[in-house]
Each structure stands twice: as structure tokens, then as C-alpha cells.
Amino acid sequence: MLWVKSLHLLFLISWFAGLFYLPRIFVNLADETAPAATERLLLMARRLYRFMTILAIPAVVLGFWLWLGYGIGRGPGNGWMHAKLALVVLVIGYHHACGSLLKKFESALNTRSHKWYRWFNEVPVILLLLIILLVVIKPF
Known about the structure:
With 140 residues, this protein is mainly α.
């Protein structure tokens, strides 16, 4: 079980590194006017999104293995796990929202400002903080 948990954390941390960085690229894309710089940023964003997706899959699969295979968070007194799973669904939704925003940038259809992306960039930080608190403290 400790191997599965360690790998889950490794993939989770790597996935979140991408979730923290991709919106920063969006901030720069929303502010950039030079075509060459825009193309370079789009290339970086595409590669990062693809890599993040590859990292997200084992993170989620290993998390479900811990939950369903080893029974972590199952049974009475484990309401924290339901809250955590709801937050995981939000993280996956955020990941897909990043993919949708990337497609808008690729199609030159972005209508949001760099300030909006700065706020958007804070969402995974808050989600990760809440998930960590639920897992460590297990408040309910």
C-alpha cells in the first residue's frame, strides 16, 4: 500500500505543478501581442497540457486504488473522503477547463484579460489546500 500511496503522491504533485504553471502561460498569452512570442507560448502550453494529462491519469487511478482496493476512506466516519472526492472532481473539471481555454487561445478566440487569468491561476492552489486539509485532519 505504501508504494501505491507514494506513487499517487508523486503523480499528484507533478500534475499540480502543471496546473499551477499552465494558467501562468495563459496570463502571458492574454497579454502578448507579438506573433512569434504567442506561437512559442502556445507550443509550451500544448506540450504542458499533454504532459499534465498523462500525469493526471495515474494520479487518479492510484487514488481510486487506495480508496477501493485498500479501503482508505471507506466505512463510517469517513465523510472527509466524500468531500475530497468532490474536490477531485472539481480539479478534473479545472484541468478540462484549461484544455478548453487552450483551444480558445489556439483559435485566437480568447476574450479574457490577463487579470482574469491571474485569478483563475489561484483555483488549483485553493483546491489543493482543501484536499490536503481533508486528508490530514479528517474533520468528519
